[in-house]
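It is worth pausing here to work through a concrete case rather than discussing structure prediction in the abstract. The textbook approach is simple: state the sequence, then state the predicted structure, then interpret. We follow exactly that order.
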Amino acid sequence: MSISTTIKTIQDIMRKDAGVDGDAQRISQLVWMIFLKIFDDREKEYELMDDGYVSPMPERLRWCNWAADPEGITGDELLDFVNDDLFKTLKDLSLAVEGDRRGFVVRSVFEDAYNYMKSGTLMRQVINKINEIDFNKTDDMNLFGDIYEQILKDLQSAGNAGEFYTPRAVTRFMVDMVDPKLGEKMLDPACGTGGFLTATIDHVRENCVNSIEDEAILQKSISGVEKKPLPHLLCVTNMLLHNIEDPSQIRHDNTLARPLRDYGLKERLDVIVTNPPFGGMEEDGIESNFPAAYRTRETADLFLVLIVHLLKDGGRGAIVLPDGTLFGEGVKTRIKEKLLDECNLHTIVRLPNGVFSPYTGIKTNLLFFTKGEPTKEVWYYEHPLKGTSPTPRQNPCV
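Step two, the predicted structure:
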């Protein structure tokens, strides 16, 4: 059975439940369950590798002890357990020791999670369907991306779209072109479900990791920030799937809410790759965190200013931007001047229409740049629609 069919079956079950109202709640319900299953799978691996491993969760709350058995608790007993024990305990999970990062991750995930279902019998049916998905198979890692894409399609049809799923071909291409190295600090300041982060992890592992020590360096070099709770939860789960042992470096926050002047030299980064939200407006006051010349409430423009600021000299950036940023005037012109003066904007790839369909029809571009020297010329490449010829051009910047 395909993953899309499995997810559709789960959502059909949830539609029978009187407590779940709309696709957004069904998706939220599904995601915290998937998180617990994947977290439990990772814990089984930790126990095999470390005889002294202690779970941050009470034993009774681990997925394997209440959800894995298809004949396990159901009905009112299951509902009472989830509402009165599981959620209450995990929302206020006490950390066993100082620096218990895995416990911190679990608690932060459940701070914004809710159980909407009112039927314990239907919940058991959902749990049993989730248990049919095997996330431990290496070949099935991409199932998580497929799940999220299916989720977004459901949100789109429900009129609640607001997140874009960046196709894996785009994330992999951008990361490969930036070519992050072992030991370099990498950030996605609008990480969504972690597509660029996982592409970076895969890239570094394939090209640079040759020992346990190398892997330990990689584990500490990846970081992300996501503003919305649902994508944040999905990103944390995605990190667990990609064997990041401590996904606490994925913060639930708004990167733009911190004043630029507060970033010190030690916080500069080697690599930033991102697809920030565009077409939206930030809340009142966010623009005051930026210098007066670059103040705007257009999210994509603010992220571009932030990225240029955060990169260290020699650092590389890649970003997805709409035509509005490239061809707009006023404050957009000043932001582009900053980019061209402080960075070598060496490549622009114009994507064909339909890359982000059905989420948006906005025309998009990939910008690649290096911090520390001004731009002299830009290689511009227009990616063709299937069946047409590419049109590379090398033009001086104006």
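Step three, interpretation. Residues 158-162 have pLDDT under 50 and may be disordered. The longest helix spans residues 23-49.
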